[in-house]
Specification:
The complex is a heterodimer of chains A (194) and B (186). Chain A is an all-alpha fold and 194 residues long. Chain A folds into two domains: 136 residues; 39 residues, no CATH class. The N and C termini of chain A lie close together (8 Å). The C terminus of chain A is likely disordered. Classes of the chains: A mainly alpha (194), B mainly alpha (186). The interface between A and B is large, with 54 and 48 residues.
Amino acid sequence: MSVSSPAWASALGVVAVVLGIFLTAMNGNELMKHAIITQPAGGEEQLAEPDCPPDELAEEGVSLAECEQLVAHVRTITVSRPDWFRGFYMSLAALGAVVAFASIVVGAALIDGRGWAPGAAMLNFGALAALDVAGFVAVVNAGPLLRDFYLWQLLLWFLIHLMMTVAAVVGRQGGPLPRPAAAHGRTELPADRA
Amino acid sequence: MSTTSVKDGNGYSRSAVLLHWILAVSIFFLFVSSWWMLALPMPSEIFKYRAFPFQLHKNVGITLVFVLALLLYVRYRHRPAQPPADVMRPWMQRLAVVDHVILYVLIAACCLSGYLSSSYSGWGTKLWWAVELPNWGYENEELNILYSDIHLWTCWALLAVLAVHISGALYHAFRNDGIARRMLHL
C-alpha cells in the first residue's frame, strides 16, 4: 500500500483544519464583539430606549418586541461583565484566533506527512485546550448571564481539543511520520500503521 | 482506506492553497459575524454598535470577490493532474467539478448581492476605511430588499454547498487517498 502519511494523521489533520477554520472565525468575532460593546453598566446606553422604526422592522423581519430585546441582548453583556472581563476575554480571543489559525497549518502538516507535525499538533491542540480552560475559569467568575452565554460552548470546545490532544499524543507514540518533509517521496507504510 | 494515492507534485500550487484557506476562514468569519451583528440594536443616535461590524462585513465581502478572482486565475494557470480513477471515480470527479462551479458562483453572487443591497440602502461603502466606493445604486427600498433577499438565500445555499464540499474533503482525508492533501500541501 502506498500512502504518504498514516491514517490517524490524515484523519486528525482534516478535523484540525475544519475546526481550526471555524474557531479562527469564532475567535475573530468574539474579539470584535467585546471591542464593539464598550459601555460599562450604568452608561447612557443603559437608559436609552431602543429605536425601532416600522420600515426597519419590516426590512429585517423582526417584531417590535424582538427589536426592543436586541438592546436588552447587548445589556446582558454590559451589566454582567466585570471590569476585568472585557480586556481579559479580548486577549484570550486574540490569542485563540492565532493558535486556531496555527491549527490549520498543523492539520495540513499532519495530512502532508511532515515529520514535525505530531509534536506540533500535541502542543497546538494542548494550547487550545488550555485557552478553553482559561476562558472557562474567567466566565465562571463573571456571573450567571455570561455563564449561560459561554460555559456550554467552552466546555464543548475543551472536550474536542482534549480529544484531539490525546489523539496527537497517542499518534506520536507510534513514532515519527514516515515521510520526511524535504523528500516529498512516497513511502511504504508498515501494515500495522497503514 | 484507498489502495493507491495521488502522487506528490500533482496538487494545487502554493498560491492556490493559500488563497483557498484565506477564502475559507473569511467566509466562515462572515457567516459567524453576520449572525451576531444582526442581533445588535438597530442604529440610532445612541446605539451605534452596528457601524463597525457592518463596515467590516462589507470590506471582507468585497475583498473576497477579488481573492476569488485571483484564485480562479491561479487555478487556470496551474491545473492539477486528474486523480487516477481508482482513487476518485469518474462520477466523483464530475460531482467535484459541479460542486466547485456552484461554490464559486454562489460566493460571487453572495458578495455582489450584498454590495448591491448596500448600494440601494443609502449607506455608503468606504473600502477598508480608506477608499470611498462609488455608490452604484441610489436609495431604493424595493431594490434594497430584493438584493437583500438574494444575498440571504445565496448565502444559505452557499452554506449548504460548503457542507457538501467539506464532506468530500473529509471523505478523502479519512480514506487517506491523497486527494485532500492536494489542497493542504505546504
